[in-house]
Automatic annotation (TrEMBL):
UniProt xrefs under SMART domains: HTH_ARSR (SM00418)
Keyword match DNA-binding: yes
Nuclease listed as a keyword: no
Top-rank taxon: Bacteria
Protein name: Metalloregulator ArsR/SmtB family transcription factor
Length: 110
């Protein structure tokens, strides 16, 4: 198994959990959130949320910066984009161009 496949597997596994996707959504809305902020609307313990953040961090989806005593969490969208480019984009090129061609032909026939 090559490094790209291993990286993809880690990202897919991290994205498979709805709680982790929720955390990523929260970080997309506003980066630089503390653990306290992120746990505020989840029915989990602080330890549970920290564990999910650790999995996201290990997958490269979350980066952490320290600010004094606080750890601030930020979304890193690059691993998702890499998966998009590898697994989604190449499959949408054909159908998208076919629809564009159909639209052009229909407009020309009017």
């Amino acid at each position: 198994m090559d490094d790209d496949t291993r990286d993809d597997d880690t990202v897919f596994k991290a994205l498979a959990d709805p709680t982790r996707r929720h955390l990523l959504d929260r970080l997309f809305e506003k980066g630089g959130r503390t653990l306290t902020e992120l746990e505020s609307d989840l029915p989990l313990t602080r330890f549970g949320v920290a564990k999910h953040l650790g999995i996201l961090e290990a997958a490269g989806l979350v980066v952490v910066r320290r600010s004094g005593r606080e750890k601030l969490h930020y979304l890193n969208p690059v691993p998702i984009r890499v998966i998009h480019d590898r697994w989604i984009d190449k499959y949408t090129i054909g159908p998208a161009s076919a629809l564009t061609d159909l639209k052009t032909r229909l407009e020309e026939s009017e």
